[in-house]
Amino acid sequence: MDWIQWYACIVCMFSKRSGTEEDQIIKRTDIYKKWKLPHVIRRHKGGTRVVAYTQLQVPHKIKHLIWRAANEAIPTLYNLWRRRVVQSVSCPACNSVCEDTIHALWGCHALKSIWEADELTKKLLKYKFSNFADLLDMIFKTQSSMDSDLLAVIFWMIWEKRNNDRMKGCWYSHQEIRSRALQLLHEFSVAKSPQQHHLPPAPARRARWLPPISPRYKVNYDGAIFKDLGAAGLGVIIRDSEGCVIGALAERIPLPISVATVEALACRRAIQFAKDLSIYEATFEGDAEIVTNALRAGTSNHPEFGLVINDSLALASGFRFCNFAHVKRLGNLVAHFLARKAKSGNVLQVWIESIPDDIAPIVSCDIL
Ligand SMILES: [Zn+2]
């Protein structure tokens, strides 16, 4: 079972409740059985998700719908049935499945064409999400590669269409939803920044991890500071062109004088780690631009980390191929979490062709 399946399953643990009205219970129990429904919907705390909602660059009404959907608070047939408003939970669009939130906004067969039009959402179709909150978590965790704003607008349009279809008929088709959503997003961003009316819309540029070209490797590094311990953490991950993990490392060191020095030390550790694993063709990538620029300059007299840079360059001189790249933080998340992991456990933790379970999901997100 891969981690996405695991993730989708693990959050779906329900408890049972007892009823009081016997006749109704028999009928409702039949429905529970028929549709394999949970008796109590488990609410998620969703702390990180709340932050993600607030960062969505979409109209407020759309944020609000997404928030309600994640909290099972939109009037799907299943939610109405739980409140004893309707008798049937069967999805009117496909007639075969219970219309709960995840079905209405994502899983319904009628929506397949929307998701199959994009490679990333098409890949997500392979996985079964127990509820909408789990799907959202996945989207927010992979937002370096997924356009969460666009998906939020699409979810909203699907819900609008579903409601209009019931009331008076909707004048746009499912196939049109993606292009309409793009249009709405564009209009929203123009309206938000009127001073830029004369400029063409900027292409959506997102920081994300990109695999190296075979036979080279990519080595991501990052540092973390643990002021309370008077220590810092170094995180390194080496991956091949398929995104497979060759090695990973988390190391705790005494706290240096500056954040940039921690980053420089992380890079030096990354080069040493690659050498230890007999890797001599690699790109070393970090999210501290000042360090990458110093490495690219070929020498440094920086008062804080100049010596570490020169050390790193000396180490790298033995490589057949070596270059230094900068990536935004979202493209460097695995190294970031490895550096954070150095806070606890042994001073040096190394994984060869494996990765700690709690970091594996982020590795998977990078290659989605
Ligand atoms: Zn359906």
SSE blueprint:
Layout (H helix, E strand, L loop, with lengths): L2 H8 L11 H14 L11 H9 L4 H11 L6 H6 L18 H7 L4 H5 L2 H6 L7 H10 L6 H20 L6 H19 L24 E10 L4 E9 L5 E10 L4 H18 L4 E6 L2 H9 L8 H11 L4 E6 L6 H9 L6 E5 L7 H7 L2
Parallel strand pairs: 1-4, 4-5
Antiparallel strand pairs: 1-2, 2-3, 3-6
Helix pairs in contact: 4-10, 10-11, 12-14
Bound molecules: zinc ion.
In short:
The chain has 368 residues and is an alpha/beta fold.
Number of strands: 6
Number of helices: 16
Helix content: 40-55%
**pLDDT averaged over residues:** 81
Largest sheet: 6 strands, mixed
What small-molecule ligands were found? zinc ion
| Overall morphology | elongated
SSE sequence, one letter per element = HHHHHHHHHHHEEEHEHHEHEH
What is the alpha-carbon Rg in Å? 25 Å
Distance between the termini: 16 Å
Describe this structure in words.
The chain has 368 residues and is an alpha/beta fold. The chain folds into 2 domains: 3-196, no CATH class; 217-366, Nucleotidyltransferase, domain 5 (2-Layer Sandwich). The protein has helices at residues 3-10, 22-35, 47-55, 60-70, 77-82, 101-107, 112-116, 119-124, 132-141, 148-167, 174-192, 259-276, 289-297, 306-316, 333-341, 360-366, and strands at 217-226, 231-239, 245-254, 281-286, 321-326, 348-352. Strands 5-4-1-2-3-6 form a 6-stranded mixed β-sheet. A hairpin with a 5-residue loop joins strand 2 and strand 3. Helix 4 (60-70) packs across helix 10 and helix 10 packs across helix 11 (174-192). The longest helix has 20 residues, at 148-167. It is elongated. It starts with a helix and ends with a helix. Residues 91, 93-94, 97, 103, 108-110 line the site of zinc ion. Zinc ion (ZN) binds next to loops.
